[in-house]
Amino acid sequence: MRFLHTGDWHIGKKLHGYDLLADQKAVIRQIFVLAKQEKVDAIVIAGDLYDRSVPSVEACEMLNQLFIEINWQEKIPVLAISGNHDSAVRLSTGMPWYELTDFHLYTKLEQSFDPIEIGDVQFYLLAYFEPVAARAYFHDDSLTLTTAIKKIIGQMGKSFDPGKKQVLVTHFFIAGSFKTDSETSVEVGGLNAISYDLLHTFDYVALGHLHSKNAIKKGNARYSGSPLKFSLSEKDDQKGIWIIDSSDLNPQFKALTPLRDVKELVASFRQLTDPDFYQQLNCEDFWQFQLTDRTIIPNMMNQLRAIYPNIIGAQRISRYRENVQLEKLKERKNSPQQMLQTFFAEITGDDLTKRQKYWLDQALLQATDTEKRG
Amino acid sequence: MRFLHTGDWHIGKKLHGYDLLADQKAVIRQIFVLAKQEKVDAIVIAGDLYDRSVPSVEACEMLNQLFIEINWQEKIPVLAISGNHDSAVRLSTGMPWYELTDFHLYTKLEQSFDPIEIGDVQFYLLAYFEPVAARAYFHDDSLTLTTAIKKIIGQMGKSFDPGKKQVLVTHFFIAGSFKTDSETSVEVGGLNAISYDLLHTFDYVALGHLHSKNAIKKGNARYSGSPLKFSLSEKDDQKGIWIIDSSDLNPQFKALTPLRDVKELVASFRQLTDPDFYQQLNCEDFWQFQLTDRTIIPNMMNQLRAIYPNIIGAQRISRYRENVQLEKLKERKNSPQQMLQTFFAEITGDDLTKRQKYWLDQALLQATDTEKRG
User: How close, in Å, is residue B61 to chain A by CA atoms?
Assistant: First the structure.
């Protein structure tokens, strides 16, 4: 059998305040097209379907509609779990009815022990859970995430059919993975990390949680990554999905093309506002500019926004060095000349020229004069 | 065929800050028991399943679970619509899958034109809608609620089967109905009222919106009323559901018993705190007391709450007359004696006795002395 592995849709997520619903709908429909082209027997969604536990009504409407399209209309089985961003209870609305059309939306620990069998594969769907849920389920207050996962996988093992392949679908941070800026940092790292070694009993582990497909490459564990770039740190990521055939379990990557990409560009303001230059670009993309300019550009962001409506930022290459500590500056009891020279150097990376120093002295003289006369 | 008519469940509603989830679950399960006893072919729920467009996660979990019990497990068909308190989009999550087990949850105007046929009855499910939705649907900006309803009912008429009975399920305010305090007042009244005359083409109109079963008794139109009392103004209401048999379409009322009732009692504080008295009462009920006392009772509410944990209020019978206008009181430049006499009269309904006047004079004298010396 063949299946498609995706995850971290984060329906309703915004990028620097911009609504991504249209982008998400377009890219998920691309996933559906790929599923049909690749003749998969199931679409696996490894959690974080929504971006928030209480999604907006527009987000709800869109996800409901997408499931109707792919499962109710196209009749492609869907195997999905809730992630840490989803409310398990809210997301599970509609279960168990979804089961009637092979749409398996698992949100509870106890559902993970009964595999869904499609062809020669047993799928174990382990939704994201907090250790406290495992403690309640197993009546064992000593459980940590690691010992809970061990116990869960041990229990799953009892139903392993030696004649079949086993696939785990889950949503956690695997220790040693690389994160991007669009995962919430409190949810990655030490306490909630699972060692990859716990997962080796599976033939394939379809992971969700981290947004880069390259976050981990250990054995047969893969993050699908998000279908869209959700932060500037992902600008060079190639987003896509995995197609897995149970015959070799060798995941094949299929790229997705966003409606609007997240891009960064180094250029001068003059270039960016030159039609000959910007007509070469997709101005609708989410642009972050690194400006080479040093002079003051009045009303800069508004001028850029008029050309690049979805601009997410513009900063000078020679911007404030991040280690400048304002407090230290305050402590220095410098002359106005020294303070302005330091300020100029922080902003531009250059010292004042002889001419600039002359202007500065004249300006300060005039200001002091005015002050005295005032 | 036989059906049960209920509505206005308002799952998640609170009564004077008290959570009603347990009460709602208990009373809705009573409805399910009645449905089985009465061997109905369908349960009709005429809108306002939730109290809020974004219900709490506990409310979601409960309603999901109740539908699983009655439709998925007991296999009783359910015909439900969204009311003005529901978010049509959020509530519709799980459709169209619900249809597979005869759980028809209609939330959109366009769904109202295809009747659901059970036995010899055609059910038309018209969810609550704002005139703006009808204007968009019919591409007619001139539509008011009344003209929209006329148009909708006209269109429904085209599929009327003369060999069957027609039942309309809807959620509106019918002009001339009586309201209670638990409906939101902005949603009842003139603009959103529908004339009963529009509905005469139906053999039975299963209404939701108003919380008293007696809100209207015109022809075959009935409000089921809420299954629980949601305000003190409903204290004398008998809550319940209607059982309708298509042979005579004569609704039979079946009463429901709440876990905790809403009650009012006139008594003295001494009685209310006397075990011989309160052991005759269900102290767990939501009690509103009219106290006959006139003297000051320190810490009164806390003392009452210790006995009546779900008390919703206690007030003196001889309480502030509502037409007392504080501003007027302020305008009168009375002596302290006069002001206190007026205040005493407002509170107790009595004038000061000779002795009380003496006490007052002494107290004021002392206060004035202290002031002067201070």
Answer: 6
Q: Is the peptide bond before B251 cis (omega within 30 degrees of 0)?
A: no
Cβ distance of B100 and A97 shorter than 8 Å: yes
Residue of B nearest to A62 (CA): B89
CB spacing of A64 vs B93 below 8 angstroms: yes
- B97·A97 Cβ contact <8 A: yes
CB-based contact B13:B49 (threshold 8 Å): no
Amino acid at B226: S
The CA distance from B295 to B297, in Å, is: 6
Give the model's pLDDT for residue B321. 42
Q: Do A97 and B93 touch (CB under 8 A)?
A: no
Size of interface A-B (CB pairs under 8 A): 51
Q: Tell me which residue in A54, A61, A95 faces B54 most closely, judged by beta carbons.
A: A54
Residues of chain B with a CB closer than 8 angstroms to some CB in chain A: 53-54, 57, 60-61, 64, 68, 72, 87, 89-90, 92-98, 100-101, 103
How far does the CA of residue B95 sit from the closest CA of chain A (Å)? Answer: 7
Q: Tell me which chain B residues have a C-beta less than 8 angstroms from the C-beta of A89.
A: 57, 60-61, 64
Cα B260 off chain centre by = 15
| B116: amino acid identity, one letter | I
Q: What is the pTM of this model?
A: 0.83
Domain ranges within chain B, ordered by starting residue: 2-255, 262-316, 327-373
C-alpha A229/C-alpha A258 separation (Å) is 9
Which of B57, B72, B89 minimises the CB distance to A57? B89
Q: Which residues of chain A have pLDDT under 70?
A: 176-180, 182-191, 318-334, 370-374
Give the whole-angstrom CA distance, residue A305 versus residue A307.
5
SS (H, E, C) A4-66: EEECCCCECCEECCEECHHHHHHHHHHHHHHHHHCCCCEEEECCCCECCCCCCHHHHHHHHHH
Give the span between the Cα atoms of B29 and B31, in whole angstroms: 5
**Structure tokens of B68?**
């699983």
How far, in Å, CA of A125 to CA of A111, rounded? 7
Question: How far apart are alpha carbons B207 and B82 in whole angstroms?
Answer: 12
Chain B residues closer than 8 Å to A103 by CB: 97
pLDDT in tens, chain B (374 residues): 999 999 999 999 999 999 999 999 999 999 999 999 999 999 999 999 999 999 999 999 999 999 999 999 999 999 999 999 999 999 999 999 999 999 999 999 999 999 999 999 999 999 999 999 999 999 999 999 999 999 999 999 999 999 999 999 999 988 766 666 766 544 444 457 888 888 989 999 999 999 999 888 778 899 999 999 999 999 999 999 999 999 999 999 999 999 999 999 999 999 999 999 999 999 999 999 999 988 889 899 999 999 999 999 998 886 544 444 444 545 555 677 887 887 787 777 788 888 988 888 888 888 777 666 54
Q: ∠A103-A104-A105 over CA atoms, to 5°?
A: 110
Percent of chain A with pLDDT over 90: 73
As a whole number of angstroms, the distance between CA B8 and CA B224 comes to 8
| Cβ(B277)–Cβ(B267) below 8 Å | yes
Distance from CA of B206 to the nearest CA of A (A): 26
Domain B2-255, classified CATH 3.40.1000.10, yes or no = no
Which residue of chain B comes nearest to A66, CA vs CA? Answer: B93
What is the greatest pairwise CA distance in chain A? 96
Digit-coded pLDDT (tens) for A126-170 = 999 999 999 999 999 999 999 999 999 999 999 999 999 999 999
